[in-house]
Hints:
- It is built from eleven helices and twelve strands.
- By secondary structure, the protein is of the alpha/beta class.
- The protein folds into two domains: about 5-145 and about 280-310, Rossmann fold, CATH 3.40.50.450; about 160-275 and about 330-340, Rossmann fold (3-Layer(aba) Sandwich), CATH 3.40.50.460.
- The strands form two sheets. An eight-stranded mixed sheet has the order 1-12-11-6-5-2-3-4, sandwiched between helices. Strands 8-9-7-10 form a four-stranded parallel sheet, with helices on both faces.
- Helix 2 packs across helix 3.
- About 50% of the residues are buried.
- The structure holds adenosine-5'-triphosphate.
- Adenosine-5'-triphosphate binds near residues 121 and 125.
Amino acid sequence: MMMIVTQNTMAVERKKRKLKRIAVLTSGGDAPGMNAAIRAVTRAAIANKLKVVGIRHGYQGMIDGDFISLKAFDVSGILHLGGTVLKTARCMEFMTSEGREKAYQQLKKAEIDAVVVIGGDGSFTGALVMSQEYNMPFVGIPATIDNDMYGTDYTIGYETALNTVVDAVDKIRDTARSHGRIFFVEVMGHEAGLIALNSGIACGAEVIVIPESNEHQQDELHKFLSKGYKNKESSGIVIVAEGEETGGAMKIAEEVRKEHPDLEVRVSILGHIQRGGSPTAKDRINATRMGVAAIDALLDDQKSVMIGIANDHIVQVPFNKAVKLNHNIDTYLLEIQRLMNS
Ligand code: ATP
């Protein structure tokens, strides 16, 4: 069950609390806006008289005791930066109980009372497992460019990644139109096609191939090609979400080349540029709101919850729901995209 929460860090009288020192880390894939979240967590905590420790390199840094003290000044000048100043990692050792025992001992040694994890569902699963084993409250802030977390309309980084894709595809469209070519543009999202779906609509893609509706969309591609796409005055953009389910842009383009040798087919794989860059205003604002709400949640004795934004309200979603349930796509958007190309 989601809970709507009013953001009120400074205003509300709080019960006497035992929380003195909190830690913040970034984990899993990096996403633009993570720095804005680190800044918000740090400053909201300090405003509430808490000490803040930054854990570098995600859970690996927790195991290694790679901790730094964070003051308000230490997070100045990072709001607009992509990546994460705390670094991030995927850590196999944390998946073992021995690894988590080491991590807990490090937290205890540093007198850390609670942890804010900025990451995706894997990172929250790790937090949930550890909080079940040890008495350590964790609160999560969803940051992943895929926007595939249940219980929140936004994850930090998605908006920026989407805009990066739109900017790149607009440029590809210029060259595609000049040569009368059809481009297969591969974007990130092997399990969730939200970047593909929404960038496709924003760029006026002729076809969008996503894992959630793969077969159907591949049929749409064949319909589009057999409709007689041979117009040299025109261009074609097919957005393909990466991964096994769709087969990826390279594989689809190869099949199309065989079936339609007359077409000028090109492939562009956008790759890691989608993860980088300065976060958009919306990602910065959402990251700041969620960072403040994470500290609110800890001060209110919440644990094992993810902060989300639903219908523009801050919500708290239990980790066990956030990590298990998928964020569904709105298939009506595919109808809209078809309508635009009919
Ligand atoms: P992204 O969505 O960008 O991939 P993520 O948070 O889902 O981000 P993962 O690589 O899945 O990224 O997870 C990050 C880290 O969380 C893992 O490297 C591991 O240290 C920890 N983790 C993930 N799953 C578990 C688990 N079942 N038990 C303990 N720790 C886990």
